[in-house]
Amino acid sequence: MNSNLTPREIVEALDSYIIGQPEAKRTVAIALRNRWRRQQVTGDLQDEILPSNIIMMGPTGVGKTEIARRLAKLVDAPFIKVEATKFTEVGYVGRDVESMIRELADRAVRMVRQEHEQLVQERAHELARERLLDVMLTPKTVKPSDSTNNGQPEDDQMEESSTRSKFRKRLEDGRMSDREVEIEVNKDNSNSMLQVFGPLGMEEMGMNIQEMIGGIGGKQRKKRRVKISEAQELLAKEEASKLIDMESVTQEALKRVENSGIVFIDEIDKVASRTVKSGGGPDVSREGVQRDLLPLVEGATVNTKHGMVRTDHILFIASGAFHVAKPSDLIPEMQGRFPIRVEMHSLTEEEFYLILTQPKNALLKQYHALLQAENVELEFTDDAVRRIAHTAAKVNDEVENIGARRLHTIMTTLLEDLLFESDGTNPLHIQLDADEVDARLDSIARNRDLSQYIL
Questions:
Q1: How far apart are CA 68 and CA 252, in angstroms?
Q2: What is the DSSP letter of 145?
Q3: Which of 5, 135, 258, 451 has the smallest set of CB atoms within 10 Å of its CB?
């Protein structure tokens, strides 16, 4: 991660997008900073410092997943978010739990590769321009008797060199961007690759089969006619791939996975056994998923197509609503591997108001930007925003508490007519006040049966 980010700075960054939940933010910030602190420890003690895995508990819509999503943008580390319900015990139909580590390794390789490609972008664009010039300035065919040692008359060489310099200058200035040219590029076979999924590492086998099929006959090429601006980007991408050392990219990526990788497991409560059963049933499979997850959390070696990955120092963050099951319903070994627990509270009316107005991606700002595309200036008075927040809190109390997601439902209902009628033909300025919000929402909010389906 960014070594300059202190726990306080991490919390401030999360505050820009997530309202409330200070305890969860502090806990996550400390865990992230500890990853960097461990890297500063020298000697054998570094290997002994294990990450303190976290369980975030709280109702839906309070920010658990949003914290994970923002972490992915905050940390310069391999990060993956998975749903616990998509994994099943070995022997059942479903995804193998080790696939999350393989996917984490894939993302790390892509991330490091992009970083290395950025370092050679200048050189890659230079080589791409030369390839374009080769295509645009095909050498003239000359007779052997009229040629010099390199097969071309000296006057023609000087003329071609001058022309090439002029064209290169035009390419650099962007004066030829809209002209079309036919180039040859690598053919993308990703859509035609065989997909294989199943238990016992079959996903890994599927990846290997894909690579084998893609490697038959070497790299396939195809001709494309595109604008010069697009051609330069396509060729620069190919040249950048040639300039980087994939072996060093892979080694660095695996090192990052092992030392700073983060796995966010959502809906962990869905694989917790709700009751103790002596026989079979769904709880057997749930407990099996936990037992399969346990070695990864404790520390195991996973075979990926990029190499072996040790999971000892990967940080695992789990979350769940725990409406029915409780953290104590997890098997004892799993509870012990998630020592830090954070409870996230339900959102209040005041927090709904802040969610609508404060974050950089606030819902009101999103709808304002959407309608600006139709020449509509949308404005909410402060009492209108307060009334929306009040309605959200009220409906959550009376129907079902879905947290901040209720605001999306209410905003869509409130602006449905405007979103349907706006077509960009007539510039409009619309201001919504509390009375307008009441007129559109109150009849629905008062009818409990109706609000259950609409709001």
A1: 24
A2: G
A3: 135
- The secondary structure of 69-109 as a DSSP string is HHHHHH-SS-EEEEEGGGB--BTBSSB-TTHHHHHHHHHHH
As a 3-state breakdown, the chain gives helix, strand, coil percent values, each rounded to 5, of: 55, 15, 30
Token reading at 179: 């002209």
Beta carbons within 10 angstroms of residue 427's beta carbon: 9
In tens, the pLDDT along 252-302 reads 999 999 998 999 999 999 888 765 544 445 555 678 889 889 999 999 999
Q: How many CB atoms lie within 10 A of CB 92?
A: 12
- Report residue 296 CA to chain centroid gap: 22
79/300 Cα distance (integer angstroms): 18
CB 72 within 8 A of CB 81: yes
With a CB cutoff of 8 Å and minimum separation 6, the contacts of 8 are 29
| Maximum distance among all Cα pairs of the chain, rounded to whole angstroms | 96
Strand partners, 80: 263
Is the separation of the CB atoms in 215 and 109 below 8 Å?
no
Confidence (pTM): 0.79
How far apart, in whole angstroms, are the C-alpha atoms of residue 159 and residue 152? 11
Decide: helix, strand or coil at residue 183.
strand
Percentage of residues in the chain with pLDDT exceeding 70?
Answer: 80
Q: How confident is the model at residue 327 (pLDDT cuts 50, 70, 90)?
A: confident
Residue 444: strand, helix, or coil = helix
**Class of residue 162 by CB neighbours under 10 A (exposed 0-12, middle 13-18, buried 19+):** exposed
- List the structure tokens of 331: 């098997």
**DSSP reduced 3-state for 57:** strand
Is there a contact between 129 and 172 (Cβ–Cβ < 8 Å)?
yes
Q: What angle do CA 368, 374, 379 make, to 5 degrees?
A: 30
Pairing relationship of beta strands 221-227 and 262-266 according to DSSP bridges: unpaired
The structure tokens listed for 25 are 């933010």
Return the ∠ at Cα 187 (arms to 185 and 193), rounded to 5°. Answer: 160
Instruction: Please give the pLDDT value at position 183.
Output: 83
User: Do the beta carbons of residue 100 and residue 293 sit within 8 Å?
Assistant: no
